[in-house]
Amino acid sequence: MILRELHLVKELKKVDPGCKLKNDIFFSEHHVSHAASAFFPSPFQESVILTLDGVGEWTTLSVATGKGNKLNIIKEIDFPNSLGLFYSSSPQYLGFKVTSGEHKVMGLAPYGKPIYEKLIFDNLIDLNQDGSFLINQNYFDYSTGLSMINNKFIQLFKNDIRDPGDELTQFHMDIAASIQKVTEDVMLALASSLRKEFDIPNLCLAGGVALNCVANGKILILDLSLPLL
Asked: Which residues fall within 8 angstroms of residue 42, CB to CB, at 6 or more apart?
């Protein structure tokens, strides 16, 4: 039994001295857990499950199908191509905390206009018709360093990183709107492609990116007959 299982059994025995789980502990992959958490509590007997997050093990996006009590991962996109980490680059640039300031970016976005959408698609992210994508690592340091973005990213938008105490200007609002719009574009392209590919009328979303309720709402009203959970 590996160390993590020994540790879990030790801790569980503090609650239940008779615990004998050493052969019953199952460690699922990150995205399998995400998909299961969305599909199994859902009202659907069959669904496509789209999981989007920063990274779990090496996976950043997964597509699964669920039917009854079965779950099957169909395809994946791997690190460093991550929509979640792409979105998480914006809190650092806008002077918020990474991994906790993403909701502030989403909240700031309605006050701006997505005037940098084309600039982002021309330089930062390559979106395919089916919703798959590549992130241009020349502008990011999250795969090799301790920062989400680098100087090339800063130079692209011609403004320094905002200090947390500085005023939020129209520029920052427009950056938030542009990052949000690009994220929505990718999610809508994925939803549309999956609807056509699988011809399953139900969609479950999971992972940190699925906390983006604005993008979820736009998928919901997309004319794809997609009940969304």
From this structure: 202, 204, 229
